[in-house]
């Protein structure tokens, strides 16, 4: 949530900041702003998107080789010009950008008001920059020391960057619970919420850890110390990001591009990990813990949103293949219960961004009770991989569209590999069946590519349902999580109300909603409970519901009942989610486009949910 970018060096800062904000806009797009230092500290900000900021700045002074920029996802205060970042201090000598939430801002604000400070915004961020200036002036300390003292007084999460009119060769940044990365160039430095704005300029980066403060001075090496005043040696890593992955590549939207990338993203998630001919599944990131996973009596999977739906598929996989008891928990609920966790438990945490605040908090809770934490994450260097004992990257590549697509199928692929590996170790799967599943999994990228051929058919179908007000998605077994994910995608980007249900549960309530105006999407592939699903379709048809069925290629029985048919290739039952999800993503996409919705940046949503 919120995008941060900063620059200090010999180049003009404005074009670097603006390009960075465009690349970070998926993180927040309620408002945007920049601050530039060129003798005077100039601050420009406005409600709306980065294009609105660019128009607002047009004709104004944009000189300066040091600056900061921000795209906001509103938490404290509605999206407007005043609440947009950056925020000035009282003297307007300091400016700050901030991602996160200062939980005790109200009490700090009350105290500062008593001291004569005035506030122009409703944000917690303005409180923090006033506090920093108050400490600097009253305790007569340097700016970086004032930042350190202030951060010891605040409660909450933050990633901040501060610029000072009095120190034109300095940027100060810090993080706790929200990501921040420093890019190291030849004679300049870049700061950002993630690597997207940095990749064009350097491959050398330092990922800040929680409660670390970095001082970036022009012409000097970066200096890092903790809020407890302990000096740290910067650990420089090579950035694993291809610049072309950050562009649309000829597609109208990032979401459509990422849907179409799934043959390669699924393949990349298996690359070097699966050899079907030799019967090898090797996940190097968990190799030291896989015996513990095999011995575990219980696995708990924690996640949020789309990752939670992938976790539900994982539950079926581990119980089916490895015969291990699995519980799937919303991370946001898990952390506020008093869960029963034993030292021999395995907790698998799934997150696309690796920064999901609720998942991170749930990880810390599980660790405090002695559990072993295994991570599944897409973003290299993010917080969750560093918080877990071991884990596996999905290698799906950057996902810019806020509504997750290729991350979901990559997560399901990794969970499938994990379940197969543990099943082989435990001896809960016959060798012939094991090889059969490996071969089927290896063929999935080509079958996903084949599934994408239904795009034109779905575009035509979408026109029929553009003005629907409600959708119902039904599935059984492995396809129940697919129904949930399909409904979520439609809600996220088209703003049509949609619900996913186990097909058998329809008659325990949702059936009351079905009439001739209700589209019902049924995942009805020819595996498992196929005949039962046909019965559910008949129940819908008896009430004049409109059936859109996802079926296995060549299906004849469902075709007789459904109003619309979308075919996917034949595959193993447990791999159907990797195929059936694709047409549901496309359906959501095309309906949203036809409703003139902002597909890549749906209202009220942010890609990386770094606040509770």
Structure description:
The chain folds into 3 domains: 3-245, Glutamine Phosphoribosylpyrophosphate, subunit 1, domain 1; 248-442, Glucose-6-phosphate isomerase like protein, domain 1 (Rossmann fold); 450-601, Rossmann fold (3-Layer(aba) Sandwich). Helix content is 35%, strand content 24%. It has 19 helices and 27 strands. The strands form 5 sheets. An 8-stranded antiparallel beta sheet has the order 3-2-4-1-10-9-11-15, covered by helices on one side. Strand 25, helix 18 (530-541) and strand 26 (546-552) form a beta-alpha-beta unit. Helix 7 (262-270) runs antiparallel to helix 15 (444-451).
Question: What's the short story on this structure?
Answer:
The protein has 612 residues and is an alpha/beta fold. Helices cover 35% and strands 24% of the residues.
Outline the secondary-structure elements.
Layout: E1 3-8, H1 13-24, E2 31-38, E3 40-47, H2 50-57, E4 66-72, E5 87-88, E6 94-102, H3 105-114, H4 124-138, H5 143-151, E7 156-164, E8 167-176, E9 181-184, E10 189-192, E11 204-207, E12 212-217, E13 223-226, E14 231-232, E15 237-238, H6 254-260, H7 262-270, E16 274-275, E17 280-281, H8 290-295, E18 298-303, H9 305-322, E19 325-330, H10 331-334, E20 346-351, H11 357-368, E21 372-377, H12 383-387, E22 390-393, H13 406-426, H14 431-442, H15 444-451, H16 455-464, E23 470-475, H17 479-494, E24 497-502, E25 519-523, H18 530-541, E26 546-552, E27 564-568, H19 576-594
Parallel strand pairs: 18-19, 18-20, 20-21, 21-22, 23-24, 23-25, 25-26, 26-27
Antiparallel strand pairs: 1-4, 1-10, 2-3, 2-4, 5-6, 6-7, 7-8, 8-12, 9-10, 9-11, 11-15, 12-13, 13-14, 16-17
Helix pairs in contact: 3-4, 4-5, 7-13, 7-15, 9-13, 9-17, 15-19, 16-19, 17-19
């Amino acid at each position: 949530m919120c995008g941060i970018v900063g620059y200090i060096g010999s180049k003009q800062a404005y074009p670097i900041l603006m390009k960075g904000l465009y690349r970070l806009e998926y993180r927040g797009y309620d408002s945007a702003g920049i601050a530039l230092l060129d003798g005077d500290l100039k601050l420009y900000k406005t409600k709306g998107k980065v294009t609105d900021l660019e128009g607002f700045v047009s004709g104004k002074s944009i000189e300066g080789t040091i600056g900061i920029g921000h795209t906001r996802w509103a938490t404290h205060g509605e999206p407007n010009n005043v609440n947009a970042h950056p925020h000035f201090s009282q003297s307007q000598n300091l400016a700050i950008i901030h991602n996160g939430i200062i939980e005790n801002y109200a009490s700090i604000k009350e105290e500062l008001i008593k001291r004569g400070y005035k506030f122009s915004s409703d944000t917690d961020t303005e409180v923090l920059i006033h506090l920093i200036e108050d400490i600097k002036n009253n305790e007569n300390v340097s700016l970086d020391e004032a930042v350190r003292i202030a951060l010891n007084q605040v409660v909450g999460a933050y990633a901040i960057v501060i610029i000072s009119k009095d120190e034109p060769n300095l940027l100060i940044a810090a993080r706790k619970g929200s990501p921040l990365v420093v890019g190291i160039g030849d004679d300049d430095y870049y700061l950002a919420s993630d690597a997207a704005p940095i990749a064009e300029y350097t491959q050398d980066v330092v990922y800040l850890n929680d409660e670390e403060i970095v001082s970036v001075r022009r012409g000097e090496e970066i200096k890092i110390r903790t809020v407890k005043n302990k000096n740290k040696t910067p650990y420089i890593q090579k950035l694993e990001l291809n610049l072309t992955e950050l562009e649309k590549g000829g597609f109208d939207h990032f979401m459509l591009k990422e849907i179409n990338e799934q043959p390669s993203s699924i393949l990349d998630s298996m690359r070097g990990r699966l050899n079907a001919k030799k019967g090898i599944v090797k996940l190097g990131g968990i190799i030291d813990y896989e015996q513990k996973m095999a011995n575990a009596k219980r696995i708990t999977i924690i996640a949020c949103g789309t990752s939670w739906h992938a976790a539900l598929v994982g539950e079926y996989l581990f119980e089916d293949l490895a015969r291990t008891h699995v519980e799937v928990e919303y991370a946001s609920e898990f952390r506020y219960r008093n869960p029963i966790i034993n030292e021999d438990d395995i907790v698998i945490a799934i997150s696309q961004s690796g920064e999901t605040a609720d998942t991170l908090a749930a990880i810390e809770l599980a660790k405090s009770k002695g559990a072993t934490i295994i991570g599944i994450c897409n973003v290299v260097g993010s917080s969750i991989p560093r918080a877990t004992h071991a884990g596996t990257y999905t290698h799906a590549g950057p996902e810019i569209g806020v509504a997750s697509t290729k991350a979901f199928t990559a997560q399901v692929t990794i969970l499938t590999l994990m379940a197969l590996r543990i099943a082989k170790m435990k001896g809960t799967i016959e060798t012939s069946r094991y090889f059969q599943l490996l071969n089927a999994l290896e063929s999935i990228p080509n079958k996903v590519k084949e599934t994408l051929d239904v795009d034109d058919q779905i575009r035509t179908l979408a026109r029929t349902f553009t003005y629907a007000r409600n959708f119902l998605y039904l599935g059984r077994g492995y396809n129940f999580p697919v129904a949930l994910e399909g409904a979520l995608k439609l809600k996220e980007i088209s703003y049509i109300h949609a619900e996913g249900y186990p097909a058998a549960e329809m008659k325990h309530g949702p059936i009351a909603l079905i009439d001739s105006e209700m589209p019902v999407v049924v995942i009805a592939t020819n595996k498992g409970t196929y005949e039962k699903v046909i019965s559910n379709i008949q129940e819908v048809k008896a009430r004049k519901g409109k059936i859109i069925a996802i079926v296995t290629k060549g299906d004849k029985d469902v075709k007789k009942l459904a109003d619309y048919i979308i075919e996917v290739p034949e595959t193993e039952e447990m791999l159907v989610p990797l195929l059936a999800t694709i047409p549901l993503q496309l359906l959501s996409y095309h309906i949203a486009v036809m409703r003139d919705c902002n597909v890549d940046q749906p209202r009220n949503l942010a890609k990386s949910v770094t606040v509770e």
